[in-house]
Description:
This protein has two domains: 2-79 and 187-244 and 314-366, NAD(P)-binding Rossmann-like Domain (Rossmann fold); 84-169, no CATH class. The protein is globular and about 70 Å long. It has helices at 12-23, 64-71, 98-105, 110-124, 132-140, 142-157, 195-202, 214-220, 234-237, 318-333, 341-344, 351-366; strands at residues 2-8, 28-32, 43-46, 49-52, 59-61, 84-87, 90-93, 187-189, 207-210, 224-230, 247-257, 268-271, 280-283, 295-304, 313-314, 337-339. It is of the alpha/beta class. The mean pLDDT is 97. The strands form four sheets. A seven-stranded mixed sheet has the order 7-6-12-13-14-11-15. The protein has a five-stranded parallel sheet with strand order 9-2-1-10-16, covered by helices on one side.
Amino acid sequence: MKYDYLIVGSGLFGAVFAHEAASKGKKCLVIDKRNNIAGNIYTAEEHGINVHKYGAHIFHTSDRKVWDYVNEFAEFNNFINAPVAKYGDELYNLPFNMNTFSKMWGIQTPEEARKIIDEQKKDGFKENPENLEEQAISLVGKDIYEKLIKGYTQKQWGRKCTELPAFIIKRLPVRFTFDNNYFNDRYQGIPVGGYTKLVENMLKGIDVKLGVTYKDFIAGTDDTFDKVIYTGPVDEYFDFRLGTLEYRSLRFEEEYMPDCDNFQGNAAVNYTSADVPYTRIIEHKHFEFGKGDGTVITREYPSEWKPGDEPYYPVNNDRNNSLYEQYKALADEEKNVIFGGRLGVYKYFDMDKVIASALETAEKELA
Ligand SMILES: Cc1cc2nc3c(=O)[nH]c(=O)nc-3n(C[C@H](O)[C@H](O)[C@H](O)COP(=O)(O)OP(=O)(O)OC[C@H]3O[C@@H](n4cnc5c(N)ncnc54)[C@H](O)[C@@H]3O)c2cc1C
């Protein structure tokens, strides 16, 4: 078979590009090393509940073009992300807002909250914060840092906040309104029926081959391709010849509770004490307002990453950024390969940004 495009990876970047190319009459083949489509936004229906298998995903954007685009493939519900933080046996609303402050200090007005935060910021103020702890206290004061940031961040990065660089948190949004909506974006929601259906709709009518890696596929196929869209790890494409780009990884522990209808009353509860080993528990049924039999929860454990593990978050420190630049120079020389998506360009993207980037690539490529 002769194809115009081989698309490596059936995540959002690959699926959007494939859809755009196919709609312009191009013949595409999408392959993926996993046995399912949709990459990290893959959801599987279990007991009538759409379970987010690679971490909880909430779609949010202020980009009207992207919002209209995703709505062509799925109907979105009106889920609003309003996580709760659990510190010991205390529960706090997130993001940091008047509900959080009222619970923490027993105060009622924005003025009272502002006064406490300003005083605590002044106490801990450092002109040039030398680590994440100093930076966080300078931004939000000691109480919020101690209860809601310190343990959580330590678990996320596997290091004490005093050993982490200050630049990791440039800003910590603090809201002086009673508003628990985590995102400031104009549009937000979860695709009804799960993300896998959304990607299935994007890939309708397009050839898809699952359970095969790029290298194995290329070695064993007689098909031909004019171009490759590559959304796997850029260093792996070049056989790690310059070294390995590093990631933080995650381990998910899923539990089905047939006799429990509602485990925690919210989709996401963050565990902010250092002595609880996981960072959060997701209760999937709440993304779709409680439908399903029993409940499914997932505990999320951040973990060290080593080659072969699932890569989740790029570690954009100086070493990795400069290594990526060297790989990018090699990638630029591959005339018939376009690198895209979070692994192809070694960058964390939210879903809306990855869609925008795939649409832009498609527009340039298919013009
Ligand atoms: C824990 C977590 C939570 C997140 N939550 C949100 C959220 O709430 N909201 C939001 O907007 N964004 C969220 N994101 C970001 C979101 O997951 C990404 O924007 C999106 O999944 C990126 O799509 P992609 O196509 O670039 O990559 P992926 O989805 O990773 O797709 C790449 C695909 O390529 C395949 N592949 C890789 N290498 C090869 C190879 N050699 N051969 C064949 N196939 C290969 C992989 O199997 C994979 O299916 C979250 C990310 C994480 C890690």
